[in-house]
Structure formats: C-alpha cells, structure tokens
Amino acid sequence: MLRSFVYLNEDRLDEYIGQVEGGLRQISRRTATEDHSKAGAADLKLVKGDLSTTRGSSQTEELADSGPARFARLLDLVAGHEDDFGWIEVLSDADLEGIRPGSMIDVSADLYESDVTKMTGPSGVLGMLPMLSQMQSSFGGAASSSSKMPDASKIEALRAFATVMPELILLGDIDGSETRIVCVLPATMGAEGQARVVAKVKKVVAPGKYEPLPGLPFLDQMPRAQRRDFLAKGMQAGQEMMWIEGPALVLDVLAIWR
Which of 47, 112, 204, 236 has the fewest CB atoms nearer than 10 Å to its CB? Predict the structure, then answer.
C-alpha cells in the first residue's frame, strides 16, 4: 500500500523500531545480477561439441532507510503479534473496550481543528492582532470606549496567550463510534479530513467526564497544588472550548496518513 503521510513523528518511530529490532538500520544494499551467454557449435574431425561463454554483471544499490520505509517495516513486525505489542486496530466500538494508557491504536477518524486552535491560529485572533493594534493606535481610547473593541492591555494579553499556544490541537471523530480523539501536533500540515491515525494512548477520558485539552500553556505552568484545584473544580462556564468531554482518548501521535 502506498501511503501519503500528513504527519510522521520520526523520532518516536526510531524509538519503536530500535526496541523491536535492537537497533536502527542505516543503509540497505540491494544487488541485481544479470547473465549474458553465447553459444555455438563445432565439428572438427568427426568430434562434435558445443562452445559457450558466459559473462555476468551485477549492480549494487545503496538505499537510505527513510521514515515511510521504517513505518512500513514496523507494521510488518507488528503483524501477527498485535497482543505482544499492545497494538489495537479499531474497527468498532468493541475494539475500544480494552484500550488503556500505553496501548497503541490504529484508527480511522475524521480530523478537525479545535475551536481554541481556530481562535489562536493565524486565521483567528493571532492573525487579527496587527490590525487591532493598528486600529487602537489610530483611534486611541475612543475606539474602546465607544465600541466593543478591546483596549491595548487586552490586545497584548491576547497576543501573549496566542503566541504560546501549540500550533495545532487536533480533534477527531472515530468512524462508527461516539469516542473522540485529541492530540497536539507541531503544525497544521493540512491534517483536517478523513485519515488513518497510529498513536499511543496517553489518557482515557470516561463517558460524561471532562479533561482539559492537551497543550494548554497556562495549565502546564500552574503549580502542582493549583493545577489539582483547577482539575477538581472541572469545567466552568465560558471554558467549554478548552475541555473535551468523554468518551475520548488523548493521544501521542506516531503517524497520520491517507
């Protein structure tokens, strides 16, 4: 099967391949040999025989071990040993029942950007900040007092929040299931739409429970006690876009491909 990769975490892939094979293959060599033969007949003084000569040529190619090739090799190594690797191909809701943190899943899903990414991404608030700053400079305080436009301090706060957000918090609806997936990727890379996702499960969110979206910078920077208090309170009004409701799986993505 020829795969078109939207995303491939080659560092993580090398970790998995190295564990299974006991090391990483740097270069593979392939040699092809071709024989060339000539044949003839001789009849000398009643002694009849055949004459032939054979020449051989060979060509050796050196192939770099690319990321897609290593991914295909990983799938071949796993095939038939899925239980040994905790590898689950999700084809129905029944396949989700045994999933736990640490499981590897291979799932088809409809992927889309989270609302918080749309808001803070280049096409959202972050992209509008230069225009808002220019308008604020041009009209001064009059613009804020006579309209709903944020003042300079709020614009700066939005800028600070948007610039520390991860580039993409991605959500996905698993085909034929109410369970969703969520992950953080380093860039958009046209990830939206139907795709296959291979990933390690970091957290399982039970039905009816809420979990903050991964990658939120303010949550990572909270002191441990404050973070525990924030999680204990759960989702509050106005925070909906920063949480995901179960059933859901928080993933560390290895590959997204079509």
Answer: 47
β-partners of residue 245 are 210
DSSP string covering 18-60: HHHHSS---EEEEEEEEEEEEEEEEEETTEEEEEEEEEEEEEE
Q: State pTM to two decimals.
A: 0.72
> Which of helix, strand or coil describes residue 113?
strand
Peptide bond into 247 cis (omega under 30): yes
Give the Cα separation of 59 and 55 in Å (integer): 14
pLDDT in tens, 22-36: 755 555 555 656 665
Residue 16: CB atoms within 10 Å: 19
Rounded-to-integer distance, Cα 249 and Cα 246, Å = 8
Tally of CB atoms within 10 A around 210: 17
User: What rounded mean pLDDT belongs to the chain?
Assistant: 79
